[in-house]
Design brief:
Blueprint (H helix, E strand, L loop, with lengths): L17 H14 L3 E6 L1 H13 L11 E2 L8 E6 L11 E5 L6 E5 L7 E2 L11 H19 L6 H23 L4 H18 L6 H13 L3 H16 L4 H12 L6 H18 L16 H9 L2 H4 L8 H10 L2
Parallel strand pairs: 1-3, 2-5, 3-6
Antiparallel strand pairs: 4-5
Helix pairs in contact: 1-2, 3-4, 3-5, 3-7, 4-5, 6-7, 6-10, 7-9, 8-9, 10-12
Length: about 325
C-alpha cells in the first residue's frame, strides 16, 4: 500500500552462532534495511537486536563481546516476543554461540534495548506445552536469580517478585490450556519483568551451570536451566534464607513460619512445579553421564561474568558437588 520494501528472514530455528548471525547480517546489509523488527523467541530477538547495531557499524562482532563495548546504534528496533521466556524484548543482552569453542558469549549494552516492544498474548497461543514449560522456567529463573543476587537492587526486587508471582501462578495454567489468554498475558508480563531484571542485575549460578549442558550436549536453554534451578537454590539457601523466604511470602502470603522453613518450602515448591510441567529433574534424564562432571565444572567455572553475581560464592569443587547432586 505504501510501497514499503521489506525482507523476511526465518533462518533462526535454534540458538544462534556467530556464523548464523554473520550470514543474516550480510543479507540485511545488502538490503540496506532502515528498521529491524524481531518477531519470535529469544534467539530471534537477540539476533534482531544485534542486527540493528551491526548493520552499519565498523566494530567487528567479536570486539563488542562483553559489557558496554557497543559505541552506538542508528537503526530503529522493534521487538515482538512470541514466547514467554528470555525476556530479550526488555533486556540489554544478546547471546550468541562462538563457533570456535562452542561456548556462549554475552553482549551487553543499553544500545540493545529496543525502541518499541509489543506484547501480544495471542501470538503465544500456538506454543506447544513443552515449549511453554521450559521457556516459562527460563523466565522464572531470571526473576529468582535477580532477587537472590549479590547485586540485588530494591527497584529490581519489585519486578523480580512480581514476575515470580505471575509466572508461578500462570505457567501451570498455560501449560494445561495453551488457549488461556489471561494466563498467557500474565506469563508474558512476568517474562517481560524478568527481562527488565537482566540489565541492572543479571543472572547467576543457575545460568552459569546450565551453559555447559547447552554447549556440550545441545540441551535447550530453558531445559538446562530447569534441571539446575532446584540444586542451585538448595546450595544458595545457606547464604540467603531470608531472600528465599521472601519469595515464599510473595507467593503464599506472610506467615509465622521461621525463615529457614519458608526458604525450604519454596525450594520444595520449585520441585513440584517442575514435576507438574513434566520437565527433567536430573542430568540422568537427559542422557548425561557422571564422567562429564569434570569438563562441565571447568566450563561452568569460566562463566565468571555470571558466577560473580551469585549470592553464595562457588569454587570449582562446589560446582562439581552441585552437578553430582543433580544426577
Amino acid at each position: 500500500k505504501h510501497d514499503i520494501e521489506y525482507l523476511i528472514n526465518t533462518d533462526i530455528i535454534k540458538e544462534p552462532t556467530f556464523a548464523d548471525f554473520e550470514k543474516i547480517l550480510s543479507a540485511a546489509i545488502n538490503f540496506d534495511a532502515d528498521i529491524i523488527i524481531g518477531i519470535g523467541g529469544g534467539s530471534v530477538l537477540d539476533v534482531a537486536k544485534l542486527l540493528a547495531v551491526q548493520i552499519d557499524s565498523k566494530q567487528p562482532l567479536k570486539s563488542i563481546i562483553g559489557t558496554g563495548l557497543i559505541k552506538g546504534r542508528n537503526k530503529y528496533l522493534i521487538c515482538i516476543p512470541t514466547t514467554s521466556g528470555t525476556g530479550s524484548e526488555a533486556s540489554p543482552n544478546a547471546i550468541l554461540t562462538d563457533n570456535e569453542d562452542m561456548t556462549k558469549k554475552g553482549i551487553i549494552s543499553n544500545f540493545l534495548i529496543p525502541d518499541k516492544v509489543y506484547i501480544d498474548p495471542e501470538l503465544m497461543i500456538g506454543l506447544p506445552p513443552d515449549i511453554t514449560a521450559f521457556t516459562g522456567i527460563d523466565a522464572l529463573t531470571h526473576c529468582i536469580e535477580a532477587y537472590t543476587n549479590k547485586y540485588s537492587h530494591p527497584l529490581v526486587d519489585n519486578f523480580a517478585l512480581e514476575g515470580i508471582r505471575l509466572i508461578v501462578n500462570n505457567l501451570p495454567k498455560a501449560f494445561i490450556n495453551g488457549s488461556d489468554i489471561e494466563a498467557r498475558l500474565n506469563l508474558a508480563i512476568g517474562s517481560f519483568y524478568g527481562g527488565l531484571c537482566l540489565g541492572p542485575v543479571n543472572t547467576a549460578a543457575v545460568h552459569a551451570l546450565a551453559y555447559p549442558l547447552q554447549s556440550i550436549f545441545k540441551i535447550p536453554h530453558g531445559i538446562a536451566n530447569s534441571i539446575m534451578l532446584p540444586y542451585v537454590i538448595e546450595y544458595n539457601i545457606l547464604s540467603a534464607p531470608y531472600r528465599y523466604a521472601c519469595i515464599y511470602d510473595a507467593l503464599e502470603g506472610f506467615s509465622s513460619l521461621k525463615v529457614n522453613d519458608k526458604a525450604k518450602k519454596f525450594s520444595e515448591q520449585i520441585r513440584v512445579l517442575l514435576k507438574n510441567l513434566k520437565l527433567p529433574l536430573s542430568l540422568n534424564e537427559v542422557g548425561i553421564k557422571k564422567s562429564y562432571i569434570e569438563s562441565m565444572a571447568k566450563s561452568a567455572y569460566d562463566v565468571q561474568r555470571l558466577l560473580k553475581n551469585n549470592i553464595r560464592d562457588l569454587s570449582i569443587e562446589d560446582i562439581k558437588i552441585i552437578y553430582q547432586k543433580a544426577f
